[in-house]
C-alpha cells in the first residue's frame, strides 16, 4: 500500500488513499497495531498514516506524524486517550 501512495501520479495516489480511508483501513491497521505491538509494526502503521495524510491533504502535514513517531504509543487505546 505504501509504495502505491508514494508514486508520482498524484491522481492515482489520491484515489487510492481515498479508497483506503473508505475501506476502514484505520480500523484494520490499528487492529493490527493492537494485536502485534512491535516497534516495526508501529513504524509501518504510522508511516502509512503519515503518507495518507500527505496525499489527502496535499501538504506535508504527514511530516508531523513522522517527526513524532518515536513518541507515539504502540497501543491504539493509548493513542485514542492522547487524542482525547
From TrEMBL:
GO terms for biological process: meiotic DNA double-strand break formation. InterPro entries: PRD1 (IPR044968). Transmembrane segments: none annotated. It comes from the Eukaryota. PANTHER family: PROTEIN PRD1, PUTATIVE RECOMBINATION INITIATION DEFECT 1-RELATED. This is At4g14180-like protein.
Amino acid at each position: 500500500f505504501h509504495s502505491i501512495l508514494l508514486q508520482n501520479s498524484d491522481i492515482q495516489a489520491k484515489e487510492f488513499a481515498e479508497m483506503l480511508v473508505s475501506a476502514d483501513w484505520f480500523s484494520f491497521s490499528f487492529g493490527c497495531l493492537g494485536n502485534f505491538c512491535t516497534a516495526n509494526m508501529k513504524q509501518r502503521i504510522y508511516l502509512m498514516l503519515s503518507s495518507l495524510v500527505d496525499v489527502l491533504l496535499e501538504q506535508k502535514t504527514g511530516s508531523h506524524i513522522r517527526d513524532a513517531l518515536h513518541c507515539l504509543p504502540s497501543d491504539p487505546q493509548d493513542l485514542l486517550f492522547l487524542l482525547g
